[in-house]
Amino acid sequence: MVEQKGKNASRNQLQTVTLLNTIAKHQFDACIGGARRDEEKARAKERIFSVRDEFGQWDPKRQRPELWNIYNGKIHKGENVRVFPISNWTELDVWNYIRREKIDLPTIYFAHERDVITRNGQLMAASPFLNMDDEDIVERRNVRFRTVGDMSCTAAVESYASEIDDIIDEISASRVSERGARLDDKVSEAAMEDRKKGGYF
Amino acid sequence: MNILKFLTAGSVDDGKSTLIGRLLYDSGAILVDQLEALQASNRKNDDGSIDLAILTDGLKAEREQGITIDVAYKYFQTDKRKFIIADTPGHIQYTRNMVTGASNAGLAIILIDARKGVIEQTIRHSFLVSLLGLPQVVVCVNKMDMVDYSEEVFHKIVADYKVLAGKVGLKNINYIPVSALKGDNIVNPSSNMSWFHGESLLPYLEAVEIPADNRADHARFPVQWIIRPQTDDLHDYRGYAGRVSSGSFRVNDKITVLPSGFNSTISKIELLEEEPDVALSGMSVTMHLTDNIDISRGDILVNAHNQPEVSQRIEADLCWMDTRALDTTHTYLLQHNSKVTRCRIQEILYKVNINTLDKEFSEDFRLNDIGRIVIKTADPLAYDLYQNNKANGGAVLIDSRTNVTVGALMFRANAE
Predict the structure, then answer these.
(1) ipTM for the assembly
(2) I need a surface site. Which of B13, B77, B79, B346 has the fewest CB within 10 A?
């Protein structure tokens, strides 16, 4: 795996290598993830128990039927299951749960002032990890992150929601999806499907 | 918030994806970036408007072929309810995917093209909805705009469908004439069909009451895990962890452990740090009993006065889901909630031709075949009949050679 170069370089692909190596090293049978079906259309086809072959690949055409509440966790050596217990939750469900259970969160999820630049209509945090040039204008804006991934491919959204209640109001009224701030999904119409076939979570 | 899970049965030709797209679009669930992606796509309707169907076709192969292959789950919410749509393919070669989607749905929308009326696939979809025991059905007669919003056409289809519903044993049916493409009777009442006095689809879905699909008097608790820390401070601790699959359990209830048949009494129920008096259907809890008896993963605790069937021979409906045909000489694994046991299909009683509903005798059982079989299990199973209690009446077959789920079973009768 070679790190991408250039202005729109993303380190997103690098995550898959680390993930697959870690699974192999510890021989994990199952890895639990927080992905939800409402995030993205390839994720909408995902099983709750999603079997990956020994190369970590997801094959959407060979998924196991998943009926009622019966989950088939049988695998061969070298394979693993990605388990998505909150598949049927939505972004709003997650925030309502955080509010109800009073869960502490990193401050990055709440509105704060930050230096950003605008790329393809998205607010990217100005950082040494972003390849910036003279055309990029750094501005101080009020932003928060709805989704947190690698700095090179996760955009912030303009927001003044500094409390959980504000965030719930903001999501309820939002006209942009959570993954709308993920540049990695926008590479092509099948960006997520292709990455999952390669072993991505 | 109250959740309604529903299934949509129909094909792209019936406008199924357009109907779902319309529900999402008119209820405001399609967001700006998704709309931009739609507009950027080169699939458009003939009049240049956005093709709402591409919202639901998530995989490359589906977009290439213009058909839905796998179940896609879609989510939307109004101020009255949260909705989960299981968008299932309508083609016969994907029958197993429709069965999968139907297994967790409380309501089915069956789409009929107003120009075609009740056709072969309507029979097939209605049979599957009945087989999986969905308690509520909405028949949407779509493309009403193509038949001049004709009241006669609608009533003819309703009359035809009632005959079919009688044959497959469906009850609780509502009929709505719609045009998904134009938006008639989807969110708002259509001015083109003032002769129709029923509710539009979305208000209907927001209000419909779904009968519970498991029985309140069938208290069932499949044991997933025995908790025995055997540490100094928890020396005598012995708890049985699992999820209540139907009914409810109270402290001091008399219970029976199946298949062993031992009796005991619930002494305590734990839910994280709490100790509630009652565990309701769907709750994941740890049970404690007054007696130390032999209980393993796969056993089931039931209320002593209303017990399920226990046997090693069961008559069941089987839907075959694998490309490799059923082998009656092969030993499969059967998974029933947390219980896994070996089994063999002893007899094929009949197969159903799901396009005509005729019962046929056949030696072979292939992908998408559905029929009645007799199964013999290595260990006794404690089960309810599917028609009485879905949560304890269904199981899957796993091929031990591939570990793939190859069949769905709905238990219909004790065959001992």
Answers:
(1) 0.85
(2) B79
